[in-house]
Every structure is written in structure tokens, then in C-alpha cells.
Amino acid sequence: MEAAGIEPAQHFEYVRAFLVYERREHDTSPNVLRQRYQVRPGLAICVLLAPLVVAASSSTGAVAARTGQPAAGKSATSQAAIVGTWRRVTTCSELVNALTSAGLKKFVLEALAGNGFIPGVTSPDQIANPASPCKGAVTRKHSHFFTKDRKFGSLDWKGEQVDDGTYRLVNKRTFIISKEFPNVTFHFRIRGNTITFAPVIAPGCATFRCAWAISMAYPGKSWQRVR
Fold first, then answer.
1. How confident is the model over 5-35, as pLDDT tens digits?
2. How many domains is the chain built from?
3. Residue ranges making up the domain that contains 17
4. 3-state secondary structure at position 129
């Protein structure tokens, strides 16, 4: 491969000069010591730098290829795929099992009251039997929506918005939701008109943030696109 901007004849001259220069660098005879700096070091520098120029040019092209329009197109496609409203029919037992499995049992009563599973119950202390919190519970439709302008929200069974935030895609399988607490990362998978969510939470997490992530996702359960 020829260095960019260097003719073959010039390249040969540079190499020859560089070899002479190197040989003289290790020769300590008086004549050579006098003549050492008569060799043009600039030629040697050009020979050394020429491959770097080619490498840098190739590297720049590779970076451009990685960050060009195709990658942006994939990101746009991923966002277009998740934009919309996703709904499922949730149950009290599903939420209890999800929170308990994640080590977040202490948030069960609060989550059940907040999601309206037991008619007439709006606070944890109204649940008659905390040991059997799903007694008298009903199913509830619940929805999440993602807009083109990166807004996230949830709707209860009456269609009223009960949660809000913003989101951004990390890649075609991951997004981050920002709310009043530290950001939460979710993996997701879309298959046809269904989506599943998997929150990324640290083992042993015992905060409301993690309980919210579990109750938002219902890990392993599918949500249906409704618009």
C-alpha cells in the first residue's frame, strides 16, 4: 500500500535515506560523526509517519461507518417500534409474587392499594387481612405509553394517567426511564404486537425505586399494543 500523497520514487528515496541515517546513528567513526546530521532527518520522519497517516485515515473511515446514518436509522427504528400504548390485564397475585420474588415484600400492601386491586381500598392500612392481601381483589387493566418526544406514562383501568417520566433508548433492546428517583434501566423485547419488560436492579435492592420498577414491568409478562 502506498502512503497517501507520496510517489513511489519519493518513497524509495525516503526509505534509503532513513536506512543510511539509521546505520550512521550506530557508527561512531569520526567521518560519520561529522556527516551524521547531513542526512535529512525529515525524510526519515516522513517514512515513519506515512503509515500512521494511512492508518488514521482508515480509522476515521471506520468511525464514520460506525456512527453514520445506518446506526442512526436503527435507533430511529427501535424508537418507532416502542412508541405507542401497551396494555395488559393485571392481577393482585401477579404483583404480590413479582415483588416477593424480588425480595421486596415490604412494598406489597402499598403497591396493591396504589394499583386499586381491592375496590374501596386506597391506602395500605385499609387492607383487612395483610396476610392474605388479595382477598376481594379484582383484575385491573393497566397501560404504559411511550411517545415520539420521549415521554413515558401509565394509565389506570379508568384511562387516567397515574405515572409519568421521560425515557431514552440505549439500544434496540434497552431504554432508561427518568423520574424523581435515580434512573431505571429496562431491557425489552417486542414480538409482533406484544412487548415484555425486564428491569435491571441490583441484587438485594430494597428501595421504592426497585419496587416501582418491578410493578411497572411485571417481569416475564406480555403487554399488548393497543395503539
1. 444 444 444 334 334 334 444 444 444 333 4
2. 2
3. 8-67
4. coil
Q: Say which DSSP state 105 is in.
A: G
pTM value is: 0.67
114 and 133 assigned to the same domain: yes
Residue 224 parent element (H or E):
strand 222-225
CA atoms within 13 A on the CB side of 182: 10
Amino acid code (one letter) for 94: E
**Residue 1 belongs to a domain:** no
Report how far residue 174's alpha carbon sits from residue 118's, in angstroms, rounded to the nearest whole number: 33
Residues 81 and 153 in one domain: yes
Which residue in the block uniquely carries the three cell numbers 551524521?
A: 36
Cβ proximity of 82 and 188 under 8 Å:
yes
**Angle of CA points 170, 162, 188, to nearest 5°:** 25
Q: How far apart are CA 216 and CA 111, in angstroms?
A: 10
Under 8 Å CB-to-CB from 110, ≥6 apart: which residues? 124, 211
- What is the biggest distance separating any 2 CA atoms in the chain, rounded to whole angstroms? 105
Checking if the pLDDT of 48 tops 70, the result is: no
- Which residue, of 24, 39, 67, is where some domain finishes? 67
Residue of 42, 58, 46 lying closest to 11 (CA atoms) = 46
